[in-house]
Amino acid sequence: MASILRQIVAGPRAKHPEAGLDLCYVTDNIIATSGPSGTYPQLAYRNPLSQLVAFLDKKHGDNWAIWEFRAEGTGYPDSEVYGRVKHYPWPDHHPPPFNMIPLIMASMRNWLMENEERVAVVHCKAGKGRSGSMSCSYLISEEGWKAEDAIRRFTERRMRPGFGAGVSIPSQLRWISYVDRWTQHKKVYVEREVQVLEVHVWGLRDGVKVSVEGFVDEGRVIKNFHTFSKNEREIVRGEIKKSGGFADAVTAVMGINSAEKNLHLKEAENLEKEEKAKATKNTLTNEKLHNATGDVVFRPSQPIILPTSDVNIDFERRNKAGYGMSMVTAVAHVWFNCFFEGQGPENASTDKPPASSGVFEIDWEAMDGIKGSLKKGTKGFDKLAVVWKAVDEPARGRRASVITEPPPGSDVPETGPADWRGHHYNNPSPGQGRNLGLRSETPASRDVSQASSTREEDGIGSDTEGVQSYVDGEVKGHKQVQHEKEIQVERKSGPLPTSRDLPGPEHKFTDAKAE
Fold first, then answer.
1. Which burial class, exposed, middle or buried, applies to 439 when counting CB atoms under 10 A from its CB (0-12, 13-18, 19+)?
2. HSE, side-chain direction, 13 A CA sphere, residue 457
3. Rg over CA atoms, the chain
4. Which residues sit opposite 224 in a β-bridge?
5. Stretch 62-89: mean pLDDT
6. Taking Cα atoms as reference points, which of 207, 365, 233, 227 lies closest to residue 296?
7. CA dihedral 348, 353, 356, 362 (to 10 degrees)
8. Which residues, at least 6 apart from 428, have a Cβ–Cβ distance to it below 8 Å?
9. In angstroms, rounded to a whole number, what is the distance separating the alpha carbons of residues 93 and 159?
10. Residue boundaries of the structural domains of the chain
11. How far apart, in whole angstroms, are the C-alpha atoms of residue 195 and residue 268?
């Protein structure tokens, strides 16, 4: 029974023919595996730790070591693998803080370069997204592979044919592209605190909650630094009309459209008529949708300052369902790093500082979905632009730091491990485990879900009820304050600015090397 469960859980991932375990050799020196366990209930469906250790001992003697990336805990104590384990944990379905990558690459390189018979065993939970992104990053940064070749190799070795890519989460693929650029330009990374000035959203639908998140606790935890409320948004074009209610929300989540189902039941002889009807229906639907959306600028009432250059913009769409419930119809997020979006690697290769401000843009279709999938539910908006700037205030302890890859043979620090039992694993990501469906409505969710609605109703609480933001190391309630100096975009009514109207990179930066 346990063997059957393991096969079901492994699913699309290839099984090693000799070991009979959920693992693969990405190269002769890199092994990717799902997270092993020595305790129940995980032991029933994960790689048994004892079998994994026995296989590694048999094949590689004492020439193996583990790199684990699980913020949820490894599931085993270090002593069970002879203490040969390096800890660099971050939450599932997300990329890591980029400042962690030089450490991971250097520690793997130091281990492997000492003996050509050594192997590095990487694992997360499924041995796919986190393990795959770090395997690809190593091949790119330390062995000179092209990014597309590294991604293809991992897929070929880790996945069963026809079961998709090994690394498929858009933000993790974006991080691999960052590693490629980092490698090509001197492997220099500049860590800075970042302020999110504005969030521009084109084609925003009703009931969408918008949050700004970032890493804390060495990357083990993703913190919600701010959730926009309705007094922090300006609609500059269009009108965001309320949706049809609970029935429409259920239909949207289930992906059922009765008109389309009826069309598919038509006979082949009516194909031409069907196509005409569908074309007319799509045109009317698009026109109706266009009239029900708006272009919006979200401006925080207090500065949103993240401790690293890694920024996550999170979206959740809810429709009221009555009886104190709401229907979550869309979930999406996107990670980006301001050093790379500000042409940091390219500037570093010519000894120039990275851009001190910029704009990150993305379409809805390119966003990350639910639990590492591309599934996002109903569409929440058309396009997103985030206006950001680096914060360089040495007097307040905000100083950029230049991070380079530790040289060969040097001691490479680890980040702190998560509790291996998972006892302290308490929501390391605000969206962890989130899915579509019915949810209880809270005062906070009620307020922020109105942030994209233009029509206010009686009975709605105050604009700030239950909503808090993390500002300058303290949790504070919203207060409407003037901070025009913090905003680099001219505020006025009218059409939402296009990309060329948004602030470009500024080259006013104190070189951290000179500090």
1. middle
2. 11
3. 25
4. 213
5. 96
6. 233
7. -10
8. 71, 72, 91, 220, 221, 222
9. 17
10. 2-184, 200-241+294-409+444-481, 255-291
11. 57
- pLDDT band, very low/low/confident/very high, at 122 (cuts 50, 70, 90): very high
Cα 68 from chain centre = 19
Report the distance separating Cα 82 and Cα 65, nearest Å: 9
- Give the predicted TM-score (pTM) of the model: 0.79
CB-neighbour burial class of residue 16 (10 A; exposed 0-12, middle 13-18, buried 19+)? middle
Burial class (CB within 10 angstroms; exposed 0-12, middle 13-18, buried 19+) of 381: buried
Whether the CA torsion 438, 441, 445, 446 is positive or negative: it is positive
One-letter amino acid of 186: K
| DSSP 8-state code for residue 481 | -
Contact assessment for residue 92 and residue 125, using Cβ atoms and an 8 Å cutoff: yes
Burial 447-467 (b: 16+ CB within 10 A, else e): bbbbbbbbeeeeeeeebbbbb
List the structure tokens of 238: 């269009």
Element (H, E) at 358: strand 357-363
The C-alpha atoms of residue 368 and residue 364 are separated, in whole angstroms, by 9
Our CA angle for 432, 212, 167, nearest 5°, is 50
Q: What pLDDT digit, counting tens, does each position of 180-191 carry? A: 999 999 999 999
Q: Which helix (H) or strand (E) holds 154?
A: helix 147-158
d(CA 12, CA 165): 10
Separation CA 307–CA 388 (nearest Å): 13
Tell me: domain 2-184, CATH 3.30.70.360, correct? no
Q: Which residue has the tokens 């109903």?
A: 378
Alpha-carbon gap, residue 467 to 478, rounded angstroms: 7
Bridge partners, residue 386, by sequence: 199, 360
Three-class SS state of 494 = coil
Rounded to whole angstroms, how far apart are CA atoms 197 and 491? 12
Q: Report the amino acid identity of residue 224.
A: N
Q: What integer is the mean pLDDT of 334-352?
A: 92
Q: In terms of C-beta density within 10 A (0-12 exposed, 13-18 middle, 19 or more buried), how is residue 488 classed?
A: middle
> Helices (H) and strands (E) in the chain — how many of each?
12, 20
For residue 131, pLDDT beyond 60: yes
Residue 249: its pLDDT value, please? 54
Neighbours of 383 (CB within 10 A): 18
CA distance 400 to 502: 24
CB atoms within 10 A of CB 441: 17
CA-to-CA distance for 44 and 485, rounded, in angstroms?
Answer: 58
Both tokens of 465, joined, read 């009820």
* CA distances from residue 485 to 23, 342, 482 in whole angstroms, order as listed: 54, 21, 9
- Identify the helix (H) or strand (E) that includes residue 473: none
**Interval 425-459: pLDDT, tens:** 655 556 555 777 766 666 555 555 455 543 433 33
